Amino acid sequence: MSFVQVEFLGFFLTVFALYWAFPTVKLQNRVLILASFTFYGWVHPWMLALLAAVTLVNYGAGRAIVARPEWGGRIVGATVALCIAALCGFKYFGWFVEAFAEVLPDSVRLLRVGLPLGLSFYTFHNLAYTIDVHRERVKMEPNVETYLLYGSYFPQLVAGPVERPSNMMPQFNTPRQFDVELVRSGFGLALWGAFKKIALADTISPYVDAIFAHPDPSWAMVWAGALGFTVQALADFSGYTDIARGTSRMLGIELMKNFDHPYMAATPMEFWQRWHISFSTWLRDYVYLPACFSPWVRRYVTLPFTGEWSPFWHTTRALFITMLASGIWHGSTWNFVVWGLYHATMATIYTAILAKLPKKLKKQGGWRWVTVPLQFGVTVLGMYIFREPLLSNSWARLQLNPFDGSREQWIVATSMVGLCIAASLPLVAAMSFEKFVLPKVERAPWLLPLQTTAWAVFAIAVFSSVRTTATDFIYFQF
What residue segments make up the domains of the chain, in order of their start? Predict the structure, then answer.
């Protein structure tokens, strides 16, 4: 089931009514477990078996770590290996068959394995619990029902946020009271997310797809398509997160903020502190920091021409390992690998430049007017690499003459840019209102009428933009 299906409205209203009808945490959690398994198995019930397996394996691993702490490292290693093997088996089986088709028997080549929705997200979500129990950052959860809810909670199950047990477990174990203010706030956030997905991202999507599918685009069309996908990706993915956070807030459970105006970042490092924050911090805690301090990495992953040990090369090595893992996590085509290495390279270049700048120059204000547009250009190129699966196409099209192109191609490129500007206006207006206006008027008596008017506008835009052929959220494919 998807957040933007009509069925979801009936589903959530039913869950909402049943959930708040029960007075105890135990019964409320059981309603959420049943709702989560219904939500996930709505179209393909067989996927519930994999979800339950990943969840219960990590629950059992947590109990085993507490029971036999001297085996903790081995238990974590086995659990990580088992979960990553399952993830890779489903995610990269098609690539394996295609790469080795000539030597594989017909029975294997004809086998098709689909990627279960959300597998990448809930695998990492569950592994965070096992690793944190071993690190003694969280306590082992004794109640299997509570852990089942942690592993399958439907608002963030399919595409995140990739939550941590330290945030979710206390909320699942704490009594929750119906709060009109939380319901109002959550409803507004979910409606805003639906507006971004349906009215903005899905409106741009067909035009972006048409440009990327064009067999012979001009240079201007290529960059207009990249800009279109940049706007689409933010509206689509942050829209999903807002719906997830909003629906969860209406149930009295707060999910972490996953986007913080990432296109206002001034450096690649700042961008990853603002974009998909839950996944970026997951990579930082469970890949980057271990890669920094791992003796195995120090011994076997060396960098040429580095000379003696230095903090810069030490962190650069960990950064490349992390971004390479991020690229491979996103998919099995080479463009994702290049995308990860591209972002690692840009972060390294920025870090090296910033290290050489005088302290007085770095402290001076006003630099963001230059650095933010530059970083946005870095982001747009990264989005193009991410969206174009064929590296040969990417390389050839980025070398096109900027001044070539027919009249029709220039019209297409100009129209795409105009559509991007139109779609960006609501996002810019919302950011400006949140930053400059809301802190001054949040207690004003006319704020609620203003918000309800905005909700009406969003609702009209959503229902007038709904198409008979719904477009899935971009991150459903990962």
Answer: 6-178, 182-465
CB 222 within 8 A of CB 384: yes
Two tokens, residue 46:
């067989």
Q: Distance between CA atoms of 175 and 191, rounded to whole angstroms?
A: 27
DSSP H helices, 174-201, are 180-194
- Calculate the average pLDDT of the chain: 86
Token reading at 58: 């990590």
Dmax (CA) of the chain: 72
Closest to 385 measured CA to CA, from 424, 346, 348: 346
DSSP 471: P
pTM value is 0.89
Nearest to 347 by CA among 373, 317, 308, 368: 317
* DSSP 8-state code for residue 399: T
Give the per-residue pLDDT at 475.
60
Cα–Cα dist 397/402, whole Å: 10
**Amino acid occupying residue 289:** L
Q: Give the per-residue pLDDT at 413.
A: 93
CA-wise closest residue to 204 among 475, 458, 410, 415: 415
Give residue 129's pLDDT: 94
CB atoms within 10 A of CB 115: 19
Amino acid identity for residue 382 in this structure: G
Q: How far apart are CA 76 and CA 138, in angstroms?
A: 15
pLDDT of 323 > 80? The answer is: yes
E-state strands within 147-249: none
Which whole-number Å values give the CA distances from 378 to 128, 276, 288, in the listed order?
A: 31, 17, 22
| 3-class secondary-structure state, position 1 | coil
> Directed axis angle between helix 407-432 and helix 202-213, to 10°?
150
Q: What is the pLDDT of residue 472?
A: 67
Three-state SS at 142 = coil
258 phi and psi, to 5 degrees?
A: -110, -15
Q: Which residues are catalytic?
A: 330
Pair 343, 334: CB distance under 8 Å? no
pLDDT tier at 362 (50, 70, 90 boundaries)? low
The tokens describing 389, both together, are: 């699966």
Q: How many CB atoms lie within 10 A of CB 16?
A: 16
